[in-house]
Amino acid sequence: MPSDAATAAAGMEPEPELDHPKPAAAAAGNRKHLAMLERLSKRSAAAAAPSSDSSSASPVEDFLSRFAAAKLAAESALSACRASADDASLAAAAAAIDDLDRLVAEASHALPPYELRSALAAAADLRAAHRLAASELRPKKTFSFKNKSRAPKNTPQDPPTLPSPPPPEQPKPTTLSAILPGFGFRGRQGATLVKDLRVSNDKDGDFTLADLVSCEVYLKGKCRALYVHKLRDCRVFVGAVLGSVLIEDVEGCTFVMAAHQIRIHEARATDFYLRVRSRPIIEDCSGVRFAPHALKYDGIEEDLRESGLEEETGNWANVDDFKWLRAVQSPNWCLVPEEERLQIVDISEVREQEDS
Known about the structure:
The protein is α/β, with parallel strands linked by helices.
């Protein structure tokens, strides 16, 4: 009977007369085996699928690799600057650190907080080292100038004369503002300063505002990076910044701008109306307030779109205070109450003036 043959087949070698039913059984077994292998293969593929999450980490790894190379280049430029001690090497070091800042700015919205803080701290250390190198270079020139002014004392026959009264004191750039990169406005008081970067020969470059007192500044168009140092009682309106904004030592000012990254150091009693891709960063600040972007001029939508800033992220209200690590709200910043906020400021009719 068939059941006897199957039983016998399970315990003994196949006999010649059973060769015909065996291939069908083997084929069925092979199909089951192949199906099982296919299921295992699918499971393995499914288990490997989360590796796509690792691809989300690859931009971070790529950034860290590029940042390490840019940091090494900046450090090498600083070493060359100390060795040669000339303006050319000083400018080359500043350019290398600018590249590092732009790299951080471009990736800041995708970086985890720890990597962002570490990168910002490293860039800030290099910037401080550059300032120190510049300050060591500048005094040597002023000292040699003083030696020249003493030369007339070597003529003994000349009777002593009273020194001539000094010329009226003008706003002078500080050592830091003198070495900040890019063109811009420096050392002005009570002026209205207008620049249309869309028609400038230096468009899409770096721009600097330094040592300004009671000035109104209007910048239309785009710039690559913006450096702000030592402003008092100023109102600043900026179209779009392709990279980062660094603001240092400002008081009693109002800033309206859009940028990928904004870092603020030593600001006091100042309002910021921002559109920013990453969270604004403050350090050593007090009495600073934040509100949404409030600027308009003909063509600003195109400038924002070309700069990747057409989207309102809401990050203007997500401020990181690097000097306040507690879980409660930092006392150094707050939001501008709605009833006190600026309405949309339209600067379309503000025209560029000759900078005298």
